[in-house]
Amino acid sequence: MTAPATSPIRRHSDTELTRAAVSGDKRAFAMIYDRYSNRLYDFCVGMLANRDSAADCVQDVFCTAATQLPQLRDPDRLRPWLYAIARNEALRRIRDRRREVPT
């Protein structure tokens, strides 16, 4: 019996993927997305109680991550950094909802 193949996503640490993505490796950024997008979506659904808004929030998280990733000082902190972006984005959306005035 052979050992199960390791997923390419699991083979690389967050640190390795972050460093590769910062150096321009688009596949590394895609692996980061694949690793965290579903988890972040669930997190955002929990905060926003709206699946469409949560999907938009996750999209914005990865847009921010794509531009701000070089500023991440400790590549080993990728996961909490992404969750912090998601939390801030979800809270912004909640604040914006409260400001909306029904017509």
Compact overview of the structure:
The protein has helices at 8-11, 14-22, 26-48, 51-68, 78-99. It is mainly α and 103 residues long.
Question: What would you call the quaternary organization?
Answer: single chain
Report the helical percentage: over 70%
Q: What is the tally of beta strands?
A: 0
Order of helices and strands: HHHHH
Strand content: under 5%
Q: How many strands, which pairing sense, and closed or not: the largest β-sheet?
A: none
Runs with pLDDT <50, length 5+? none
Description:
With 103 residues, the chain is an all-alpha fold. It is 74% helix and 0% strand. It is elongated, with a radius of gyration of 16 Å.
Give the SSE map.
Layout: H1 8-11, H2 14-22, H3 26-48, H4 51-68, H5 78-99
Describe this protein with a few key phrases.
103 residues; single chain; 0% strand
